[in-house]
Amino acid sequence: MSAEILNAQHNDDTFENIWQELKWRGLVHVSTDEAALEKALSEESLTFYTGYDPTAASLHLGHLVQLLVMRRLQLAGHKPLGLVGGFTGLIGDPRQTSERVLNSPEVVAEWVKSLRAQIERFLSFEGENAARMVNNLDWSGQMSALQLLRDVGKHFRVGTMVKKEIVAKRLNSDEGISYTEFSYQILQGLDFLELNRRFGCTLQTGGSDQWGNLTSGTELIRKVEGKSVHAIGTPLITNSDGTKFGKSEGNAIWLNPQMCSPYAFYQFWLNTADADVVDRLKVFTFLTRAEIAEFAEKVEKEPFKREAQKTLAYLVTSLVHGTEATDQAVAASEALFGKGDFAALDEATLESVVAELPSAKLSEDRLDMISVLTELGFAKSNSEARRILKEGGASVNGVKVQGEDAAISKDDLLHGRFAMVRRGKKNQGAVELI
User: Fold this and answer.
1) What does pTM read for this prediction?
2) Residue 258 known to bind ligand
3) pLDDT in tens, 174-226
4) Is 179 annotated as a binding residue?
5) Is 169 marked as binding a ligand?
């Protein structure tokens, strides 16, 4: 995220305090003592942390919720600690159904670097409440098994640990749960204790599915240090139809542009349902409640204009990928609807557009339009392709082509590789030269 975008971010000053704004935005599902937490957030500058385990090469949309909660708290004057779990990432928190595949220390170390770079883009590292990055490998990696059992494990009761929701589910499954994953809540509790000792950290935020792990930390600090600290569990975002948010055709929406292109990312948000878009604006943008109320009215009165979806898509894609990549994604989207020029798109954006369309890889001697239309499935036979061309029903890069001998020339190839082909109003595809 650019410094310009960071500097433009503000909390909504019409709320009495940041706690009230977080609740209005639907970002509080569960917490420790609400009155005490609201008071602490209103009266002092807290140090807080959110943990991210490197169990993949990139963060995804679920993590984006946490990143924006961190940023909102920082804007309210609180000090963020971004924890990348170089130690806990070697284990991974328990999954719902089966044991995680344990990745090698070398792979985890690379993923730590990737995630750290992603997290740093969402926070400010300047000023009185500058963010700080930490890695739990720095303390847990130095601790022997005997130290962990004597100094930390003695404070945990097995009866309490097995009641944690995720542990209980796994214990009752055919798969069961290994001691490795069972011990995860001890390690996360240790993180909170260490951050409390080192930096005076008194608040942890995370997803509500992590609540058992969050409270492991608050309880450990209470037992060891005799202090009362806080935790906030954000809701798991779901779509209004009950489907899981952040999935597209079975794949997670990653924040890494190499794993999910800015164009595909933009399209994901653009396709938000009317029933969900207002809630998404609350969670994923810094628009004020007055501005969001205006979009809510537009959704109700003029849903066909999709102004809320366009704004949501532009703002969130800009947050994650920057305005330049977002402008290219918008241009690509408009070009697909005949309102822009494919030639104006950079190669990376065009490549990501092609990946989302029916496409065919053809050699230079097969760039005649009859072959192109049949290979793309726009014509069932050569005779149908000839009829389409005779009637002027096909275009290349937005320019209508006509005649049975029509062909894509080298000059038509965008970036020397691609040609965008349309049949009629609805069939859009692409050809790539091989």
Assistant:
1) 0.90
2) no
3) 788 888 888 889 999 999 999 999 999 999 999 998 898 999 999 999 999 99
4) no
5) no
